[in-house]
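Quick one - first record:
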Amino acid sequence: MKIIRKLKKHNIAVRILTNATLLDDKQINELAKIFNPYTDSVSISLDAVKNGTLKKIRHTDCFDKIITNINKLVLKNKL
């Protein structure tokens, strides 16, 4: 987050691409502070739109966490 804050301080556009699996509440809150009200871009890559499909692709059960994190980002930034 330090790098993002420095870039924004110097008016440099920032684009983040994530699959949202490693985001936690602290990071989501920090992103909301840095980007709001001048959001550049946060893109989220989904490997599947169903839990079962994601389990087959990723061999992990993180679908609900991803959806929860997406919803938190949207609510924090009112996108």
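second record:
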Amino acid sequence: MFERAAGTTIATTTSATSLTTTDLATRFEAIKAQLLRDAGETAYRSWIAPVTLLGLSAGTLELAAPTRLIRDWVRTHY
């Protein structure tokens, strides 16, 4: 599954932990904050900020990007 109405799936990651939606969103925002520090503001705004968290389903973290270009760039570089 690569296409979503809200965007394009970037990556899936299997996790053994059980997280609430709030915990998951908090952790995702912490990861994005670290990427802002690591990548710099310009790269972050262009490539990472548009990425959204779709959810966690059966241990798979699903992220989405608004375009295939952003999806592919993030897959390749992060």
